[in-house]
Amino acid sequence: MRIPEQSTPRDHAPVIDWLAGRVAFHTEQPVREIDPHLPLAELGIESVSAVSLCGEIEDRWNLELDPTVVFDYPTIAEMAVFVVGEAARYRTAS
Amino acid sequence: MPTDFVSHVRAQVATYGDDRYYTYHREVGRELVAEEVTYRDLDRDARALAVWLSTRPEAEHPVMLLYVDGIDFLRAFLGCLYAGVVAVPAPVPHDVRSMQRVATMFADADARLVLTTAAVAEPLDTWIRDSGLAGTVSVAATDTTEPADPDDWRLPDLDGDTLAFLQYTSGSTSEPKGVMVTHGNLLHNAAAMTRANGADDTVTGAGWLPHFHDMGLIGMLLLPIYFGGNLVFMSPMSFLKRPVRWLQLIDRYRADMTLGPNFAYDLVARRISDDQLAGLDLSSVRVALNGAEPIRPRTLDAVTDRLAPFGFPAGAFLTAYGMAEVTLLATASEVGCAPRYLDVDADALERHELTPSAGGVRLVSSGRPFGCDIRIVDPHTGRELPHGRVGEIWISGGSVAAGYWNRPDETEEKFRATLAGDGPYLRTGDLGVTDDDGHLYVTGRLKDLLIVNGRNLYPQDVEEAVRELHPALTGAAGVVLSMDTGQHERLLVIHEVKTALIDDLTLPGLARRIRLAVARDFDVHAPSVVLVDRHGVHRTTSGKVQRRSMRASFLQSRVDAVLHEEIDPTVQRLRATAVAAPA
């Protein structure tokens, strides 16, 4: 996956933390159990939680996302890269 | 008294015309935009579509409806009914598996025409070609087709026995079962539901249910026009994205009635923040119906507690039981009354006996029958059981559907049971018990069926998918079971492994692959997995896997030849309990 030029691992860290927190909430697990490199499906996120998570990401970063985003970026780490890129694009565009 | 649903709707249109409306909230970007149509608008569009359908020879066969938005679906559905055409509601496919299911439904119904919208028509054409149906299927986009003149419409020859639509919520992917709902069934069950809900023409209903599911189609979409009320609604996706929208809808329109499956109420209790609830007034709610999947006492209590400060009335919940085979509703609790609980001994329940026990499993009543007669029958002897004994739930009455489309043997077995010469009865495949006041408690399932988020899931579909995941699983036996943790149903896969073929993977790697694939392909929580060596899965002499005895072995921790396990803690707890009980 091509990483947008303006984002760095330092940009991703807070997003990873936020996503891990939300996934922990949805799956009723402590956040330290959430591995950002495991597929969300394995962490206990199924389609109902996935769509809610999508809505939460939209609200948090002011984005418009297709609910399939959770399947396109199946781990927290990959989703963080995507979100950082999208948020940057939106800022540039507006 | 009309004997068909169309005449009834037309009478409502004549009475209420522009004074009643259906308001659909369409997702536009991140906002919801309200689209209001009156009864008169719906009638006019239905007549126009019916005229157009009468020119299409494909409409002599059942017509499939594939719509994203409920309001577009409703226009097409009413159009079919107005034309005397059998409608087949179905979910718009989004991947290979769902397209496969739609394709088998299409073949089973012997449909030749799909009604949809322009946005869906193009990808649908591609899917149809890939499924090999191109020769037999026409696709028409009703939003871009030139409308016919509604004044050319004439009421077709309809009566109570005329088939209105096919409901495909039953049946596995390889064997879909279309429940045949007649006009008589629809009128009968709509009347029963109206009585159960205490609804009248002052009511506004609110909801978000999928229109291709029996509760969404009949309970949400068709019921308001039946009793002369309003409906405000949105799509299931809109709700799931932001669950607070359901409550906002109720608040904004002062909705009197709403409905949903237990998991949705659970979302409301657990996923909506205090900030989002602030300022909402839910005091207009008179009835919140909970049905379509097992009802959890903890969910009812949690919602009542969470929403009480916002005006949600204590007795608002209406617990209900039903299924497509009885059109929709069979039983419902009393309006305005708190849910009725019964605490029973867990081990006795496993043996199908009901023993009240203060610290035991909490059952919640699904209420009393409406428009039907319920019997509890011993599934082995076929004899009726008295109150307090668990048996199979049998149902008779005008709401019981005509049968399964083109499946005479299954129809005979399921819909035409007799009890001491009386009948016919529908054999539901559910286990239950009635108390002395005639209140029904659903306690379990005879049939091999999983219900997740209100959706029916067939173990054989999942078992087939698992076998295809790796050569070490292909041709090996496996069972998929539903484990009820008390708050959810969780899947458990017990599968034999041909260890010589495992090759590239480790056992944990194979278990992971199974968990991931099942979660993704069936939209469920990743299942627990037990991998066993050859002959670890019980089979009959004819080679059929024995799900019930595997379940018993698992619960007693007596599964043979276990190679590797990954068990969800909530499922592990069930097992530990069984082991701890004295022999």
TrEMBL record, chain A:
Carrier domain: residues covered: 10-87
Keyword Hydrolase: no
Keyword Glycoprotein: no
GO molecular function: phosphopantetheine binding
SMART domains, alphabetized: PKS_PP, PKS_PP_betabranch
Cross-referenced PROSITE patterns: CARRIER
Pfam entry (one): PP-binding
Sorted UniProt keywords: Phosphopantetheine, Phosphoprotein
The protein's name: Carrier domain-containing protein
